[in-house]
Q: What sequence folds into this?
């Protein structure tokens, strides 16, 4: 039993899958940025991208389920050659699915992607955009020189299309701490973001999501290289909050990789904690969505990151 599983047992807290509401699809590791906090180890030289054949198998499986939300992540999801094909296929499903695009903003300004903001707006795709701070120093330190300016221009482009102001075009931002510490209170940070981004750049958005940096992949390497991993793990362990467990995203989400493999969450995917049945590794199309309910969730020490303090999920803090 790992330390997180023991912590759950100590608090008599079972962690099992409930009704699946979200299918999160990680379409690959290709990205135009190389961020320090990235749990995917994404970057411009990565070759892992979802093929059209895998897209078709995933969408065909989804069509037979009642899962209402599809969450597209990466990498930069828009960079796979069949991104538009994937979105069109998802939008054509009956009943319609709600689609989220986890966008790094700067990709919308890259050559060859100039029409992607319009493409997303025309199809009313919700955008959740990484914006780790409202100051250029912190953003550039975490994501690379010049990324802050590109992010601002990306946000202004989305605002010009109605994102952040039109009800059918929600725009949410994501804050990640710039180091080995927990996020501050989400509501306070959101107020700061809205004030600073509007006053200095005229930018509006809907919500700010605070997400804890998990000790996985590139961020784990950063911690190890700077001698901070043990202290950070202790911080997460000591901040464990049993009240967050009920709202953990792994309970209502199925995560699928660029190859179709199935996991409880994107962090588990990076740690290769794949679903198995009778020692057989499972792909999405091996699963009956109606039989996922009450499945035990695979855990590890990294799970302390999602249960520390106010909690952390792809939709931000779990507790007010």
A:
């Amino acid at each position: 039993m790992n330390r997180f599983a023991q912590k759950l047992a100590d608090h008599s807290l079972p962690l099992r899958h409930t009704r699946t509401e979200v299918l999160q699809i990680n379409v690959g590791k290709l990205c135009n940025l190389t961020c320090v906090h990235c749990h995917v180890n994404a970057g411009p030289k990565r070759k892992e991208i979802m093929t059209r054949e895998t897209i078709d198998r995933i969408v065909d499986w989804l069509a037979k389920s009642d899962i209402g939300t599809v969450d597209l992540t990466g990498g930069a999801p828009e960079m796979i050659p069949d991104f538009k094909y994937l979105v069109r296929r998802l939008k054509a499903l009956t009943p319609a699915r709600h689609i989220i695009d986890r966008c790094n903003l700067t990709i919308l300004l890259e050559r060859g992607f100039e029409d992607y903001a319009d493409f997303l707006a025309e199809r009313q795709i919700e955008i959740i955009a990484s914006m780790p701070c409202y100051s250029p120093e912190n953003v550039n330190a975490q994501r690379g020189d010049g990324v802050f300016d590109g992010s601002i221009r990306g946000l202004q482009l989305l605002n010009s299309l109605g994102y952040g102001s039109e009800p059918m075009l929600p725009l949410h931002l994501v804050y990640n701490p710039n180091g080995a510490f927990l996020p501050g209170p989400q509501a306070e940070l959101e107020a700061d973001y809205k004030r600073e981004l509007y006053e200095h750049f005229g930018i509006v958005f809907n919500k700010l999501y605070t997400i804890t940096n998990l000790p996985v992949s590139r961020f784990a390497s950063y911690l190890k290289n700077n001698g901070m991993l043990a202290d950070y793990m202790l911080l997460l362990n000591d901040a464990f909050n049993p009240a967050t467990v009920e709202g953990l995203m792994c309970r209502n989400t199925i995560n699928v990789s660029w190859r179709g493999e199935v996991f409880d969450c994107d962090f588990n995917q990076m740690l290769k904690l794949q679903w198995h049945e009778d020692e057989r590794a499972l792909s999405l199309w091996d699963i009956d969505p109606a039989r996922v309910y009450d499945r035990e969730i695979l855990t590890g020490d990294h799970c302390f990151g999602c249960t520390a303090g106010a909690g952390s999920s792809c939709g931000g803090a779990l507790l007010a």
Observations:
- Residues 186-201 form the longest helix (16 residues).
- The chain is about 30% helix and 10% strand.
